Amino acid sequence: MKNVCILGVTGSIGTQTLEIIRKEKDNFSLLAVSANTTYEKTIEIICEFKPRYAAITDKNNYEKIKEFCKLKDFKIEILYGMDGLITIASLPMVDIVVTSLVGMVGLRPTLSAICAGKDIALANKETLVVGGQLVMSEAKKHNVKILPVDSEHGAIFQCLQGNDMNDIDKILLTASGGPFRGRKKEELTNVTSKEALNHPKWNMGRKISIDSATLMNKGLEVIEAHWLFNMEYDNINVIVHPQSYIHSMVEYRDGSVIAQLACTDMKLPIQYALNYPLRNKNIIDKLDFFSIGNLTFEKPDYETFICLKLAYKAGEIGGLMPTILNAANEIAVDLFLKDRIKFLSIGDIVEETMDKFNVNTKDVTLESILEMDSQVRKYVNNKYNLL
Ligand code: MG
Question: What is the pTM of this model?
C-alpha cells in the first residue's frame, strides 16, 4: 500500500489520479491533498477519500474548509498556503507525491518532497523547466525517483526500460500541433481564447490548453525532457503527429526506434507512474488498430509558433533563462485568458522579455530562481496589463 499526496487535487491530473486511487484501493491510500480556490470539489474529495491532511492555498477557502471539517468532526488537519504545501509534501507517512500544481508554484513543495526522500510523480512541468538542474541533482542525492506523468515523458520513460541510456541517439517528442495546426501567423491575429482552449485531442486545464495552442507546451516539454533524460537539445526533436496515438519515441544508435502508443488518456501515464515498476490492469480503453486509420507526421512550423523556438533558445542558454521564459509565458497566458492581449502577443511578450532580461548567470539556486521569477512577473504585468 502506497500513501499518496496529491498537490493540486481538484485539477485535471488531480481528479484523474483520484479515479485511479478509487479503482486501485488495495494499492493506494490518499493521505494528503492540496487545493486552491475550488471549494465544492475540495469538500467532495475530503468527504469521499477522508485524507488526514489538506493544504489550502487560498485564504478565504482555507477558512471555509476548516470550518466545514470542524463542524463535521472530520479527523483532518487543514493547513494553509505555501507552508502547508511544503508540509504535506514531506510528511513522514507519504510514499509518493503527485505534483499537479499549475505553474512554477510547484517548485518549492517538489524540492522539499525530494529532500524528504519522497518519490515524485511529476505532472508539473514548470518545476523542471525552471529548476531542472536543482531538482535532478537533489533527486540523485536523496535517491528519489522522478516519475514523469506528462504523456510524452511517460512514453519516453517506457521506451527506455531495459535499455542503456548511452545507446540513445535521439528523443522524438510528438506533438498534436494543437487547435491551430496548419495555420499561418496572419490567420491567428484575431483568434479568441475560446478557440484556443478547444484542443482537438486532449481535454486539459486552461493554462496548458493555451500553451498547447502556442506550442509553448511542447517547448516546455523539450526543456523537461532535457533534464529528465539528460539529453542535449540538439538530440531532442519535435515531430507533429496530429492523431496523437504515438505519445513519443526513442531512437537508438543502431537505428531502432521504440515508440509507445495508447489512447489519448492521461490516466495511463498516471497509473504507470504510481505503480512503477509494476503494471496494473488497464483503466483506459485499449487501442483498436483497425479504427485508427493513418498515422501522419509533420515538421513543426517554428515561424508561426515562435514559442517553441524560444523554448529551445532558453533551454540552450540555460541558467535563469528558462525561468524568464516561463514567468513571461505564465503572465502572458493569464492576460490572454482575460482578453487583455491578443493570441500572437504571447510569443512576442516572451521574446521581448527574454531580450530584456538577457542575464548570463549560471548560478541557479532556489533563491535566484524565485527572485528572477518575481522580477519578470512584475515587469510583464506592468508593461502589458494595460487595462
Ligand atoms: Mg504533454
Answer: 0.94
